[in-house]
Amino acid sequence: MRRFLPYGLALLLGGVALGFQMGAVFSSNPARRAFHKLQEVFLIVQQRYVDPVDSARLTERAIRGMLSRLDPHSVYLSAAEMRRMQESFDGSFEGIGITYELLPGPDGQDTIAVQSVIPGGPSDQAGLLAGDRIVAINDASAIGFTHEQVQRTLKGPRGTQVRVTVRRPGVPEPLEFTITRDRIPLHTVDAAYMLDEQTGYLKINRFARTTHREVVQALRRLRQQGMERLVLDLRNNSGGYLEVAVQVADELLGDDQLIVCQKGRRPEYQASWRARPGGLFETGPLIVLVNERTASASEIVAGALQDHDRALLVGRRTFGKGLVQQQIYLPDGSALRLTVARFYTPSGRLIQTPYRGSRQDYYAAHWRRAAQDVTRSVEEILAEVPDSLRYYTDGGRVVLGGGGILPDYLVPPDTLSPLVQAVLRRNLDQRFIWRWFDRYGAQLRQRWARQEETFVKVYQPGSAMRRDFYNFLEENGFQFGGARDEPAALRFTEERWQTDWKVLRTLLKAQLAVRLFGPRARYPVYHAIDTTLREAQRLWEQAAALDQRYKERLRLLRD
C-alpha cells in the first residue's frame, strides 16, 4: 500500500524537511569520549587563544567541517538561511507582492526597479506598475539598497503597512503609496498552457507544500482546454518534499504502481509509496523534459515514470541525488540537514552519483560527466555500463543506475553564439528593455492589456527596436563590421548580427512579456527557441506507442 508521511515528519530531497528538536544522545562510550574531546578543545581555544574568539562563528565552522566529511548533501543552515528556505518550501511569504531588479542609477547607486506586480496583490491594489522606481521606503531613501535591505524593509507581517515613494517614467513628480502587506504565493508551477490543440505543457520548478494543488489545478484546466498529451518539464527542478513528488507522480501512474522506495539505517526510515486510483492523467502520451539540474525529488518522478514505461524522457542526464535528508532544528533557529536514507526507483535503481573526495570534486565530476554525455548517444553510454548498473523497465528496456537518470533521447544543450553570450553575460537585454519600457511602457500596457496569449502569438520586435538595440550595443562597447584584424573583445560581423537577431529579439520579447504580464509570461516566448522542447515534439509517435503498451499492461494487471 502507498504510505504518506505527515508533513511534521516529511522527508525532503534537494530541498528541506521538517524535523524534530535535537537532544544529546550518545549510544556508545566512543561517541561520548569524542564529544567530550571536542568540548574540551572548544573551551581551551575560548580561554587561551591569543585573540578574542567569536564563539558562534567558531561553532558554525566546526559544524560545517564535521558535516563536510559525511556526504555532499548533509549541511548546516544558519537561522537566516532557514527562514529563506522555509518561505520557499512553504509556498508563500508575507510582503508587498512585486518582483524587482536593482538597476544602476545616474550617480552609480542601485535603484529598486519594479519588474512586475503580482496581479491582485497588495502592490497591484495600491497602484504600483512595472517600471516604477522605488526611491524611498517609510520616508527614508532607498537609493543604494542591497537585496538584503530591500527584503528586510519590504517584507513584514501580514496586515502591517509600508509607505513607498516611486518615480514613474513620464510622470514629473514622485508618487507615494501606502501598501498593506499580505501573504504572497510563491508558485511552483511556472507555466501551464496548451502548445497546440491537443498538447499541454506543464513546468514545475520545485516540490513545495503547494505543488500538488497547483499541479491538480493545472491538469484540470489543460484537460478542459482539450489536452490529450502532455509535456512535463522538470528541467532545473532541484527537488523538494518527497511526499509532494510522490503525489505528483501518483497523478500520472496507474493504481498500485510502485513510485519509490526509501532505505535507511533506522527502521523509521524504511518506507515505500504506491499510486492510488483516480490520477488526473494516468494514461495518454507523456514526455518528460530533464537536464543536468534535474535533481532529487524531481528524479523520483522521472525515475518512476521511466521505470514503468509511462513516459519518454528527453533532454540530458539528471544530477544524480538519491539521498534523503531530514531537517533537525537547533535551539537558535538554525538546523542540520542530515542524510538519513537513500531512495530507489521502482526498478531498484539507486540514483545517487558516487561521491569521493571533497564537495568541489563531487560537483566538478558532475559537470565533466554532463559535458561528456553530449558527445555520445544513449546507446553508446549504456554499452559502457557494467551489468551491476543495468536495470530494466516494466517493458524490458535497459535503464542506467548509479549516477542520475539517463533520458531515452539525448538533446545537447543550446549553443549560444559569442554575440548572444556577451549580451546575456552583461544583462544587456534587460538593461535595454528597461530603457525601452520607460519610453513606451504606457502605450504598451494600453495596447496589450489582458491580451497575454495574443501578445505571445503576434508581437514581434520591429525595425525600430532592432535599430535602437543595435545602437545600444554600440554604446556599450560592441563593434560591428570594420577591419577583421582590428583587435576587439566585442567585435562581431554584420553577418553575425543578422543571424543572431532571431534569438536576440526573442530575449527582448520575453523581457517585455515579464513587464506586461508577470514572470510566467516569459516561458511561451522562450519556447520559440527551445531546442529540447522542439526535439521532444518530434517524438509523439514514439510516446504514443509507449503509452499504448503501457495501457495494455495496465489492463493485464487489472484482469
Automatic annotation (TrEMBL):
Pfam families attached here?
Answer: CtpB_N-like (PF22694), PDZ_6 (PF17820), Peptidase_S41 (PF03572)
Q: Which SMART domains match?
A: PDZ (SM00228), TSPc (SM00245)
Determine if Protease is one of this entry's keywords: yes
The cellular component terms of Gene Ontology attached to this UniProt record, alphabetical and capped at eight, are: outer membrane-bounded periplasmic space
**PDZ domain sequence ranges:** 82-155
The GO terms describing molecular function are: endopeptidase activity; serine-type peptidase activity
**Which InterPro entries does the record associate with it?**
ClpP/crotonase-like_dom_sf, CtpA/B_N, PDZ, PDZ_6, PDZ_sf, Peptidase_S41A, Tail-specific_protease
* Keyword Lyase recorded: no
Q: What SUPFAM superfamilies does the entry give?
A: ClpP/crotonase, PDZ domain-like
Coiled-coil spans are none
- Which NCBIfam families does the record cross-reference, listed alphabetically? prc (TIGR00225)
Family, similarity comment: Belongs to the peptidase S41A family.
PANTHER family for the chain: CARBOXY-TERMINAL PROCESSING PROTEASE CTPA, TAIL-SPECIFIC PROTEASE
Q: What is this protein called?
A: C-terminal processing peptidase-3. Serine peptidase. MEROPS family S41A
